[in-house]
């Protein structure tokens, strides 16, 4: 079963209840959890679902994608709009992400000097498909640097 975080307070509580229900009432034997790169077992958020997987011994795979390629054009479009608005308000001191990419051929992220890959949603779907359908277990997490 493929799991994504619902938009509710303390989502891990409902998700862990759902995992127990799926296992016991419908004999679901394998779960794929999509989280973020910062998730760790036991930490608030999806880390609590991950911890539940480890404690209950279910067959699981945690996917932790980073930045999505599909959002890059949106960032570029919005940065062009922001730059136009910046010109209108005479605040020319800040560069928009689009102008930085154009002028410096770089994309700056919150990762400092660390490298971070951009991934495609179809790649995440392909890994999830294999994690759910392969005969062997995938009881480990996958980050987007695969």
UniProtKB/TrEMBL annotation:
Q: SUPFAM superfamilies from the entry?
A: NAD(P)-binding Rossmann-fold domains (SSF51735)
Q: Which domain of life is it from?
A: Eukaryota
Designated name of the protein: NAD(P)-binding domain-containing protein
